[in-house]
Amino acid sequence: MTTDTTSAPNFIRHQIREEIEAGRAGKIVTRFPPEPNGFLHIGHAKSICLNFGLAEQFGGDCHLRFDDTNPAKEEQAYIDAIKEDVAWLGFEWAGPVRFASDYFDQLYAWAQHLVREGKAYVDDLSPEEIREYRGTLTEPGRPSPYRERSAAENLDLLERMRVGEFAEGEKVLRAKIDMAAPNINLRDPILYRIRHAHHHQTGDKWKIYPSYDFTHGQSDAIEGVTHSICTLEFEDHRPLYEWFLDNLPVPVIPRQIEFARLNLNYTLTSKRKLKLLVDEGIVDGWDDPRLPTISGMRRRGYTPASIRRFCEMIGVTRADGGLVDIAMLYHAIRADLEENAPRAMAVLRPLKVVLTNVPEDFEEVYEVPGHPAREDMGVRKVPFTREVYIDQDDFMEAPPKKFFRLAPGQEVRLRNSYVIRCDEVIKNAAGEIEALHCSVDFDTLGRNPEGRKVKGVIHWVSAAHGVPMEVRLYDNLFQVEQPDKDKDADFLDHLNPESLVVCRAIGEPSLADAGPESRFQFERVGYFCADRHASRGDELVFNRTVGLKDSWAKVQKQEAQKNEQGQKKG
């Protein structure tokens, strides 16, 4: 797999290239270290593309390591899903899948080392008291009354914590750094907590578990990671990351570099809030196509190439660039599918059309390109019969002046077929339109009618050969750009009631063979993906990936025109 590395700024790539050219760096080793407490989302995709992409570009390695220090919130299902997501995006990790728990014995030995050096102690303060003693951003903390225990006493208490002698919350192991440090992370941070929890990798061996801060840097060092790349919220943790590495006999010293996280409008990426949406049944599991999870995007019809392209488009900077327009993401998938998705016709809201001058047993089959610009996609066969379906939106009984679709007495061309004229509107007793009676101009197959111009072209499906389908029209899950901006409000108040609309549709016969996750452009409608959970033999289910209109491309074109005009004026 080749990753485009030219279209957007990436300061980390630039720094690493300079290090290599200056001889300050050898083989590059990066890592993607998710916590297995939820499914990955689009923000993680940015980190995956960055870490694996750097290793790929510079001939290095990227490790997949699960930072599994909190067994109460971790599950094997999350581990399996994360591995699948990374592989689906097209990346291969170097060596075996790694776990921070692989290093628990070494981490415990290093904790004992800090105790012996007088740089860690067992504290009996409660969690509430620890927060109180820590101080604030404007006031220094106070030392714990247990801070000066002897190394021997601390080692004994630590071992008794390890074997489960104490209750959860009764004691913790803390580093002894500086309770007056301006950076609160250095005010004697917690290294180990007591947790009587079964661990998915180590079973019941441990009754204490290391903190993320204590685990992360040392795991990097054990693995020989050269560049520990993380988002900006860890910038204030870097002094602590470096303090551990400086005060322990680690084999190498990784370098931590922070970059701005992805903030996408109309989207939430908080794993806690995503889990709430799943647990409350507001969405259909972690792979609901409305969620920004990688598995949800996959089910919606996104391709690995489109997600990688989007991550490249937004670039990698240290400055918080604010909200990224979700139209950029839509542009990336639309551009991919425009080139690679075969075409088909599908009618989402069927309206029957009876072609009154066509014999009842009439059938004509057209061979239509699978893709207008891709001969390798072959042709598909589209049958034409006396009765067809068109979309309800393509007919108006009293149309405005510039309505170039079907109306009483008005003509329109059926795509790849004849020109038809609406002669009669058939209604039921309630006055609702049930069908249209139309006539065909048989002299218009492949050519324009004599003496008149027909502007409209609409899609259609044979009533006799059409394939029944369920089509799910997905839209943004939230109605506002930043659903969790107001910390005092409930983000659930901003849910979009139209985020999922289900249609009973009918598609052309070629769609009957659509396999799970196969993608199509439904002509004049949008891009759709066969749902991965629909079993063979069941009714087809298609999820809308994205519409045909590209607002981001329009914005880019307008910006280019403005720049061009500005240059001319200059």
TrEMBL record:
Gene3D superfamilies per record: Glutamyl-trna Synthetase, Domain 2, Glutamyl-tRNA Synthetase, Domain 3, HUPs, Ribosomal Protein L25, Chain P
One MF term in the entry's GO annotations: ligase activity
Catalysed conversion reaction: tRNA(Gln) + L-glutamine + ATP = L-glutaminyl-tRNA(Gln) + AMP + diphosphate
Binding site for L-glutamine: 67, 212
This protein's record includes keyword Aminoacyl-tRNA synthetase: yes
Enzyme Commission code(s) on record: 6.1.1.18
UniProt record similarity statement: Belongs to the class-I aminoacyl-tRNA synthetase family.
Assembly notes: Monomer.
Annotated protein name in UniProt: Glutamine--tRNA ligase
Source organism of this protein record: Halomonas kalidii
Gene from which this protein is expressed: glnS
